[in-house]
From TrEMBL:
<feature type="transmembrane region" description="Helical">
    <location>
        <begin position="130"/>
        <end position="150"/>
    </location>
</feature>
<feature type="transmembrane region" description="Helical">
    <location>
        <begin position="200"/>
        <end position="219"/>
    </location>
</feature>
<feature type="transmembrane region" description="Helical">
    <location>
        <begin position="306"/>
        <end position="327"/>
    </location>
</feature>
<feature type="transmembrane region" description="Helical">
    <location>
        <begin position="394"/>
        <end position="413"/>
    </location>
</feature>
<feature type="transmembrane region" description="Helical">
    <location>
        <begin position="177"/>
        <end position="194"/>
    </location>
</feature>
<feature type="transmembrane region" description="Helical">
    <location>
        <begin position="100"/>
        <end position="118"/>
    </location>
</feature>
<protein>
    <recommendedName>
        <fullName>Glycosyltransferase RgtA/B/C/D-like domain-containing protein</fullName>
    </recommendedName>
</protein>
<keyword id="KW-0472">Membrane</keyword>
<keyword id="KW-1133">Transmembrane helix</keyword>
<feature type="transmembrane region" description="Helical">
    <location>
        <begin position="339"/>
        <end position="358"/>
    </location>
</feature>
<feature type="transmembrane region" description="Helical">
    <location>
        <begin position="156"/>
        <end position="172"/>
    </location>
</feature>
<feature type="transmembrane region" description="Helical">
    <location>
        <begin position="240"/>
        <end position="263"/>
    </location>
</feature>
<keyword id="KW-0812">Transmembrane</keyword>
<feature type="transmembrane region" description="Helical">
    <location>
        <begin position="21"/>
        <end position="41"/>
    </location>
</feature>
Length: 438
């Protein structure tokens, strides 16, 4: 996964500092894996969803009829597929499956890969190694990010590919190299294989990339000299449309292909291309009884109540987004198309939750609302790259401190809610207070 972040070789500081990314990744991986082993193997605080994903990988290798289809269609298959290599060691180290340590290993790797990608992108933006370390470590040690980087769930895997996708899109904005768009599309497809929220993010990214392509389609000066003004305007309009269509195809083709393959597999094995949507274990089936719960019944079909419900959970994760907006204001870039693009990307997945909550099809757990946090940090690398020359070293360092502080403030509020508020963070509260509940 760390190979998926392309860097401009014009920045000579990146190769020299390249090893620092591996050091940072090793630190993050070790911290996550040790904490995950403590949670699962020592405390026994296993997440049922994480254990189920490890079980699916186990069935592929050690069931009475070993085959890849044993992963099933309850969960997106990528987490379980990543867990196949560690689960293969089960005969020599049983806790890798019985204590779901395979899941802990995979999410720890995903957390480390995301840290590597962000650190490398910050180095490309001429941010110093020390301040880059600080920003990335603040994100990795954010209570929510740290917990989900160690608990074997799919959120961190999804967030890792989401960040890789966004970093490559932001790199594409600099030079419009097709290779970066291809990597962004492949990362989006991998995110889809991890969680279905990739569809919502893909829609937002499609809108953002389309706006860039329509506004900045390359022009040929020689063609302008050979045409009248009216003919050239007509030609440029057509050229923009063709360029936008080609850009969208490059970006979305891997994800669309993945969706088609997933439906074909559902049809071939379960005889229903939409089995993953309405099977007995699908999200719609599992949330069909939500209307009987007063908390969800009171907000169903009430948009304002849904927004208030979401705000109670999402505000702690949008603090870094606010920091990016404040920075753009100080640099005179707030009223720009790119500000709207940032907001569209940050709101893409929460918009899906709004729709699901409005129709009583989501539990509204805290982990469904954290995505603006990694999106904001990934976008921050782009802001630093824009000001790599204009902003002095001291001011760049101050900007990193401000971003790190916003992440720390977000982490402080998040940790407090996870520890004390069982209504807003029921899963995290139960995990923290597991000993008292036994």
């Amino acid at each position: 996964m760390t190979k998926w972040v392309e860097l401009s070789m014009t920045n000579a500081s990146v190769p020299r500092k390249h090893r620092s990314g591996w050091v940072l990744s090793a630190i993050v991986f070790a911290a996550e894996f040790v904490f995950g082993c403590y949670l699962y193997a020592v405390q026994g605080d296993l997440q049922e969803d994480a254990l189920s994903r490890v079980a699916n990988a186990f069935y592929v290798l050690f069931s009475r009829d070993p085959h890849l289809g044993a992963i099933g269609f309850v969960w997106n298959p990528l987490p379980s597929m990543f867990e196949l290599p560690p689960v293969a060691l089960w005969r020599w180290f049983p806790p890798i499956a019985s204590d779901a340590l395979a899941g802990v290993f995979v999410t720890s790797v995903a957390s480390a890969a995301m840290a590597f990608a962000l650190h490398r992108a910050l180095l490309w933006a001429e941010v110093s190694k020390v301040t880059s370390f600080v920003v990335v470590l603040c994100l990795a040690l954010h209570p929510f990010m740290f917990l989900y980087g160690a608990n074997g769930m799919s959120e961190m895997i999804f967030a890792c590919f989401l960040v890789i996708c966004l970093l490559n899109y932001l790199s594409w904005k600099d030079d419009y190299a097709v290779s970066r768009l291809v990597i962004a599309g492949c990362a989006l497809a991998m995110a889809f294989w991890a969680r279905y929220e990739a569809v919502a993010f893909g829609v937002g990214l499609f809108a953002v990339v389309l706006s860039d392509a329509l506004r900045r389609a390359p022009a040929d000066a020689q063609v302008r000299l050979l045409m009248s003004r009216r003919a050239y305007r007509r030609f440029r309009s057509q050229e923009r449309l063709w360029y936008a269509a080609a850009t969208a195809i490059v970006l979305l083709l891997p994800a669309v292909y993945s969706g088609i393959v997933w439906m074909v597999l559902n049809a071939e094995i379960m005889h229903d291309p939409f089995y993953f949507l309405h099977s007995a274990y699908s999200n719609l089936s599992l949330t069909s009884m939500l209307s009987s719960a007063s908390k969800y019944r009171s907000i169903e079909h009430h948009p304002v109540r849904v927004l208030l419900f979401m705000w109670q959970r999402i505000w702690i994760f949008v603090i870094p987004v606010g920091m990016v907006l404040v920075y753009r204001l100080t640099r005179g870039r707030l009223v720009r198309w790119e500000t709207l693009q940032l907001l569209v990307l940050a709101a893409s997945i929460p918009s899906l939750q709004f729709f699901l909550l409005l129709h009583g099809a989501s539990y509204g757990w805290l982990r469904f609302f954290f995505y603006p946090l990694p999106i904001a940090v990934a976008w921050w690398t782009y802001e630093m790259r824009l000001d790599a020359i204009q902003l002095g070293r001291w001011w760049r360092g101050l900007a990193q401190v401000a971003m790190a502080l916003s992440i720390v403030i977000s982490g402080g509020f998040t940790g407090r809610i996870m520890e004390r508020n069982a209504t807003v963070a029921p899963e995290e509260y139960s995990l923290i207070h597991m000993d008292k509940m036994r």
